[in-house]
Amino acid sequence: MKNILVSVDFSKNAADVALYTAEMAMLCKARLILFYAYHPAATDSSSSTFPSERQVQARLDKLARKLHNSTGASITRLIKPGSETHEILAIADTVKASIAILCHPNIEGQCALTVSAHNTTPVLSIPTTAPFDMQALQSALAQQLQLPGFLPAPILAST
């Protein structure tokens, strides 16, 4: 089974990426793994800057239900303390991901597909502050999952 790992930050772009990826996962019979890294120091109730672990889990569960109900894809949720950019490669290796998608506001520029020298899992970095580029995502996913000629997702194409 192929695994697609998507690190989400609950932005609109990350939700669009997750929806598109869920549709593709369903079509290629892959499992979508939604990942969120939280800041452990921010899990106490006195911090208002970051959501608590419980709040993150509830948001991730809600997103997973929405994606499953929309696409029928197999979806797993995973939260872990740490930084998205540091944890995604370790998680990708652990779950044997075919591709890891990192949605994060601190990524500069446009979508970029890279392969780290320390990890063979390709990582597609998507800035959540830039406009969503479905063609770049489609191309990277289709190439990595060996799906030639894959068309844009019907749910996203209609929005």
Summarize the structure in short.
The protein is of the alpha/beta class and 159 residues long. The chain contains 5 helices and 6 strands; from the N terminus they run E-H-E-H-E-H-E-E-E-H-H. It has one domain: Rossmann fold, CATH 3.40.50.
Describe what this molecule looks like in 3D:
This is Universal stress protein. This protein has one domain: Rossmann fold. The protein contains five helices and six strands. The protein has a six-stranded mixed beta sheet with strand order 3-2-1-4-6-5, sandwiched between helices. β1, α1 and β2 (31-38) form a beta-alpha-beta unit. The N and C termini lie far apart (30 Å). Mean pLDDT is 76; it is low at 150-159. With 159 residues, it is α/β, with parallel strands linked by helices. α1 packs across α2 and α1 runs parallel beside α4.
